[in-house]
Amino acid sequence: MLSHDAKAMINYVNTILNNKKLSNDIPNIAEGDADFLVLEQSLRTVRSVAEALRAGNIHHKIQGNGFILDSFQQFQNNVKRSSSGVIKSIASKSIRIKGEKNIPGKLQEANIIKKRDKTSKEIEEHYRLMTDHACDIIATVDLSGNFTYISPSVEKLTGYTPEEVLNHYREIGYFLPGVQKEMDRQRVAIRKMVEKGEPFYPVNFEQRQVRKDGESIYTDTVLSGIYDEENNFRELLAVTRDITEKVKIRREMKELSETDKLTKLCNRVKLDCALEHELDRAKTKATAFALIMIDIDHFKNINDRFGHLAGDAVLIELAQLFKDVIRSSDLIGRWGGEEFLAILPDADSSEAMELAEKIRGRVSEHYFPEQERITISLGVSVFRDDETADSIVYRADQALYQAKKNGKNQVRLM
Asked: What's the confidence (pLDDT) of residue 118?
């Protein structure tokens, strides 16, 4: 858990980045800290630049170094170039296409008016050649939802040929039903914006797709508009890239952050989130849920007699026992030390007590190689109206205390 001082510093940084009203109250622990003051000044510089650009001041002088400020300067230069008349942009966002080096937004320039001696046919051939050899899937779509072009790279990523997608994308299930429904909704909204003459800003979304061979992949798509030189909307531009590995790594990182290293059960972080979720659900949908707090009896004696490795082995074995007994809808995790917490959605007091007794009985009957027999004590609490996470956990802990006080190896309800 983060300390109070660490949380205060994080909240202060979040205020600079996200709040409309800027606070000048630096956390006490950060006052005089040179490293933090440098960070704070950098954040304030970024904020001031963002405020100036938001207000429409594209000539605001940007001073400083770093990726974000450099990005602001590049954006500022692009806007200045567009307003000078040298280049007239026809899209709302430039896109870097994987497989082509140093050409951010080149596809968007397909309908740009440039001061050069090239015919429109030559320009069209140039950009068609570029899209045909890009690694990303590049497609154009009309407002009726029909593909008017899709690059050959679609076959490498999805297994479907361009012809299959162009002519039969709905029949072949190119998009999953839920994704297709959302895309149709977005398309209707975009059509209304175009008809009203409102600007269409790029839309970014991730999705799961199923390849022709049945394998699942994850893709990221940026959807933007293509306009002609009179700024009339022509069609939609979609650039799709494979992010399967990125999603896999992201999920693995999330799982690691929510998993207890020793027992492989969920950790305190995941339990806290799940508990808040159940509280919200109980209050909005009038559902019930219960908690079971579990503690190993005489666990200190196990560590003292057999060593901490033996104690760890007991925790691991108990974790597996708990998983075998609880319902598929339940969540159990390591609360801390030798304590565990189980969250039981849609369970009343009788159901929670029955499950707690089942867990206790299974553990007391189990044979542990070195310790032979181990017992546990359990405390049960059931959600009450207008209760907080702290209060329901406190009642489960108090029930556990009563079970310990009354002789251990038993279940108590509070």
From this structure: 52
Phi and psi at residue 123, in whole multiples of 5°? -65, -45
- Cβ contacts of residue 143 below 8 Å, gap of 6+? 187, 190, 191, 194, 235, 236
**φ, ψ of residue 133 in degrees (nearest 5):** -110, 10
- pLDDT of amino acid 113: 41
Residues 6+ apart with CB under 8 A from 105: 91, 93, 94, 95, 96
Please report the pLDDT score of residue 89 as a whole number: 36
CA distance 311 to 116: 77
Q: How far apart are the first and last CA of the chain?
A: 27
Domains of the chain in sequence order? 1-84 (no CATH), 88-243 (3.30.450.20), 258-413 (3.30.70.270)
- What is the torsion angle, in degrees rounded to the nearest 10, for the CA atoms of residue 339, residue 344, residue 349 and residue 352? -60
Q: Label residue 197 by pLDDT band (50, 70, 90).
A: confident
pLDDT, mean of residues 224-237: 86
Question: Which residue has tokens 């279940």?
Answer: 411
Give the start-end residues of each E strand in 52-202.
Answer: 137-141, 147-150
Residues 345-380 have pLDDT tens digits of 999 999 999 999 999 999 999 988 776 789 999 999
Q: Where are the alpha helices (DSSP H) in 240-374?
A: 244-257, 268-285, 299-306, 308-325, 349-365
- Give the number of other CB atoms < 10 A from CB of residue 113: 14
**pTM, to two decimals:** 0.56
C-alpha–C-alpha distance, residues 52 and 315, integer Å: 57
The residue annotated as part of the active site, out of 229, 278, 338, 370, is: 338
CA distance 310 to 300: 11
Say how far apart CA 259 and CA 270 lie, in whole Å. Answer: 8
More confident residue, 85 or 10: 10
**338 in active site:** yes
Contact 335, 342 (CB under 8 A): no
Helix (H) or strand (E) holding 291: strand 289-296
Res. 78: pLDDT tops 70: no
Q: Rounded to whole angstroms, how far apart are CA atoms 414 and 402?
A: 9
Average pLDDT value for residue range 68-84: 63
* Each residue's pLDDT tens digit, 105-164: 444 444 444 444 455 555 555 556 555 656 899 999 998 889 999 999 999 999 999 999
Locate tokens 């650009």: which residue? 53
